């Protein structure tokens, strides 16, 4: 089902992907290191709570999908397929929220992850490695039902993204 353009723009504005200026137009906000760092401060505890609950609540079917997504994201990373990587990333985040069984995570995490993905994609040349292995670690530990290691894997990802942002400004 197609969504009307106005609703789509309102959703993008809510996710801070665009700024709507009434009677003047729409602007795509600038991506900045400072915004990424403050975003990651908020994303860290929310994502950690989500992966802990997902590790506790995931069904066997969701765990199988998590393992398949872990393998898939690694494969597209090996092939330098950024489009597939971003698709896997979106699917991973949706599955984690689904497995956590708390609809408030999608409301909290969706804009944070979207903005964070945007920053990574625009600055991926800074990567000395690739975050696919970190995402795969999260999925494997959640699929194993290991809450503590899932939280640690999530923290490792956010630390990596924080360092990537700091590297952009030479911190």
From TrEMBL:
Location of the GntR C-terminal domain: 38-160
InterPro entries the record matches: GntR_C, TF_FadR/GntR_C
SUPFAM superfamilies, A to Z: GntR ligand-binding domain-like
Keywords, comma-separated and alphabetical: DNA-binding, Transcription, Transcription regulation
Tree of life domain: Bacteria
Pfam family, one: FCD
Designated name of the protein: GntR family transcriptional regulator
Organism: Kistimonas scapharcae
